[in-house]
Write a structure and sequence with these properties.
By secondary structure, this protein is of the alpha/beta class. It is 35% helix and 16% strand. Helix 7 links the parallel strand 6 (168-172) and strand 7. One of its GO terms (molecular function) is hydrolase activity.
Length: 274
């Protein structure tokens, strides 16, 4: 898979490690902030989200102010459908009136539900939780504690070392520097990347960051690959720049999203196809 690429860009969370226990920990931490008589409703909704039986799901967006779940075109970021929490959909006319422009994600009022971190967050916001960040920090601390076992993907270290002999490899993540250093240590990946960009604020700045990397490493778009588990953050911006993308989707049952995008269930699948 990597032979033609001069530059390969990796996401971190959900890409270079797997597992979902930390999402459940995050949800449990947030649930405690929900008003007591609504906590069972929170838990029920979160479990339905994980099972794919809720209107909130990965790949959609959430308008916090309007409490609406939005179906979007990931390439244009335009809204194609909007539904209430109970699944009731708005009319086409209502959708067009409310969302005339492409979405801009500020993660305060408009959320791109790109991966498993956002399911408990959106659920908490629906139930009136104002402070989600402290729960996120607590979850990241849990992830580097003895109580949490973050298992390195077998063979990933060796595969990246081998990839470095032919390509520049860069890590671009929304996690902050301290979290990234701890995670890379746990994953036995520290020191492998030619460049590490933390607190990237994807998807807001993805296109600019990728454009800067193309210039810095003198790589053309068709010589560059972006790999991540968040289509909106990592893949769509790359494809719009003319790059190729690999979308990591654990169920691996998505229809073809774009001719320049491959769908895999694990980052290790990329190396097995090399």
């Amino acid at each position: 898979m990597f032979k033609q690429y001069k530059l390969v860009i990796f996401d971190l969370d959900g890409t270079l490690y797997e597992g979902t226990d930390h999402f459940d920990y995050y949800a449990e931490h947030l649930k405690k902030k929900v008003i007591v008589h609504k906590q069972l409703d929170f838990q029920r909704d979160y479990e339905q989200m994980k099972a794919g039986n809720h209107s909130v799901m990965i790949g959609k967006a959430y308008d916090i102010k309007e409490d609406l779940i939005l179906t979007i075109d990931p390439m244009t970021l335009s809204v194609t459908e909007a539904s209430k929490w109970n699944g009731e959909t708005l009319s086409i006319e209502e959708v067009k009136k409310k969302y005339q422009e492409q979405l801009s994600f500020d993660f305060e009022t408009m959320i791109a539900i790109g991966d498993g971190w956002w399911l408990p967050f959106v659920c908490a916001k629906h139930y009136g939780v104002e402070d989600c960040y402290s729960s996120y920090v607590a979850t990241k601390e849990y992830m580097v504690s003895e109580s949490f076992q973050l298992e390195p993907l077998p063979g990933l270290n060796e595969a990246l070392v081998d990839l470095k002999t032919q390509s520049t490899i860069v890590l671009v993540t929304n996690s902050d520097a301290d979290d990234v250093n701890r995670l890379l240590n746990e994953l036995q990946l520290r020191g492998l990347f030619d460049k590490v960009i933390t607190s990237a604020e994807k998807p807001t700045y993805t296109s600019k960051l990728f454009t800067d990397l193309l210039e810095e490493y003198q790589a053309s778009a068709d010589e560059t690959l972006s790999i991540g588990d968040n289509f909106i953050n990592d893949v769509a911006p790359a494809v719009l720049l003319g790059m190729d993308g690999v979308y990591i989707h654990t169920e691996n049952n998505q229809e073809e999203l774009h001719k320049n995008v491959q769908i895999v269930s694990s980052v290790m699948d990329c190396f097995s196809k090399s």
